[in-house]
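B., you asked whether I could sanity-check this one before it goes into the benchmark set. Here's the sequence:
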Amino acid sequence: VTGGEIIQLTNHPAVDIIPIWSPDGENIAFASNRSGHMDLWVMPANGGEPQQLTYKSTQEIVNWSPDGTQLCFGSMRTGYGELFLVSAQGGDAVQLTHGEWLEIIP
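And here's what the prediction gave me:
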C-alpha cells in the first residue's frame, strides 16, 4: 500500500486483530472475539461480511498458504500450543503438530 484513503473494513464492538492479506490480495484473514472467544475470520479485502472459519478458539497468529487456499493458525485448544490448518472456505481444522511445545507461530 502506497498511501491513499484509510477505509474501515469492520464495524463490530468485538476485538478484530492481526489482519493478514491473502496472497492474491482479494481477502483478509483476522482474529476476532465476536463469537464469544477468539476465532479466525476472513472477509473480502474491499469490505463485506466476515465469515467465521474456526469455532474452537485460536490464537491471534495466522498465516495464509502460498496459494491462498488454506490458513495456518496457532491454538491452545489441546492444552498445548499447536499449529492447525483450515480451508479458506471454512470446515474442520487439521492439527499439524502434536507435542508438549508451544508451537503457535506459523
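One thing to flag: The CA atoms of residues 82 and 103 lie 5 Å apart. Otherwise nothing jumped out at me.
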